């Protein structure tokens, strides 16, 4: 672990990589001109549940907590926790309507999908298969 930390520190010092700390995790990205917002999006996309919820919101445009819970197969309280994290990251916005909380993607969906395709290609392939199954 010490050797890895040394090399990561050296790469970051040489500006070959950049890092972003989110909660307990520190993530490293190649220094390819990514802004803070892109790093935040990539950080969210690296978390499976938040990534799935985010991609569902991109596909559905606007949805309720109940729909998200059913989709992700998690409890309403877990959905609420994940959605709060996405709201804090500035990727999702929530609004109340007729006693329900509705969520929608706040960023540019094409940009989010592009980042996913470029930095997480295996995840993109899995999601492309899921979307194809839904359409057929």
**Helix-strand string:** HEEHHEHHEEHH
Report how far apart the termini are: 47 Å
Number of domain modules = 2
CATH fold label of the largest domain: Arc Repressor Mutant, subunit A
**Secondary structure: helix percent:** 55-70%
CATH superfamily annotation of the largest domain: Winged helix-like DNA-binding domain superfamily/Winged helix DNA-binding domain
Mean pLDDT, to the nearest integer, reads 80
* Oligomeric state, counting identical vs distinct chains: single chain
Catalogue the unreliable spans: none
Instruction: Report the biggest beta sheet as strand number plus sense, adding barrel if it closes.
Output: 3 strands, antiparallel
The appropriate CATH architecture of the largest domain is Orthogonal Bundle
Please state the structural category: alpha+beta
């Amino acid at each position: 672990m010490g050797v890895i930390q040394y090399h990561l520190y050296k790469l970051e010092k040489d500006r070959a990589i950049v890092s972003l700390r989110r909660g307990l995790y520190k993530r490293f990205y190649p220094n390819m001109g990514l802004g803070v917002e892109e790093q935040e999006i990539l950080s969210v996309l690296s978390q499976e549940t938040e990534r799935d919820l985010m991609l569902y919101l991109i596909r559905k445009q606007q949805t309720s907590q109940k729909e998200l819970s059913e989709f992700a197969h998690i409890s309403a309280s877990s959905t609420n926790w994940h959605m709060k994290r996405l709201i804090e990251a500035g990727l999702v916005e929530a609004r109340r309507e007729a006693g329900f909380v509705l969520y929608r993607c706040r960023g540019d969906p094409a940009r989010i999908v592009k980042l996913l395709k470029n930095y997480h290609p295996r995840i993109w392939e899995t999601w492309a298969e899921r979307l194809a199954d839904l359409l057929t």
